[in-house]
Request: fold
Amino acid sequence: MIILVGSEKGGVGKSTLSTNFAVLLASLKKDVVIVDTDRQSTSANWAQYREETEQPRIDCIRQYGNLTKTLESLNTRYNIVIVDCQGSISKELQTGLLAADIVIMPFRPSQWDLDTLPSMLEVIETAKNFNSKLNACAVMTMCPTNSRIGELEEAREFFAAYPEVTLLKNVFFDRKVYRDAASSGLGAIELNNDKATAEVHDVCKEIISIYLSKIEGNHGE
Reply:
């Protein structure tokens, strides 16, 4: 299974999602590899930090340019391939979509972030012409923990106009534990933070559930 984490905008939590998903799936005895396509190398640096810990190693490779054949090859050797793309509509994003099973688009609940959705959907629709199995979903990240701030509900209302993409019910809140984990080569589930652990589990479970339901639906057609 190839999961591509991509967005037109930087700073929305792509590497946070990628590394935390990898840790959770590895803890479930899945063979996981992260493909870091961002020249800032956030996920690759995280993997190096991880080698200095006592936690199990998680493979991570840097790959730039056309990703399609590389991802297809990795998909035969690993249970899960997680692609961490840079914040732009890059060649890596476009070619990665041609091999991916699911693309996850992280958005902060701000209008500037949400305004990038239409152009992302254009790229995804183009990819679907060549990769019919591709499914798209979005997840809200860095959400304010203060429930009185209405940004999250406003974002949900925005997505109602785009039924072609599934907005996850579960979200990532803006928690310091994610930053602490990133700088230590760890996942939030390894820092004994109950709230962050629940978020990672719930978001990942929902993504897998959506993917499996799409597969079953396609088989029933």
Q: What stands out?
A: The domain at 2-220 is CATH 3.40.50.300 (Rossmann fold).
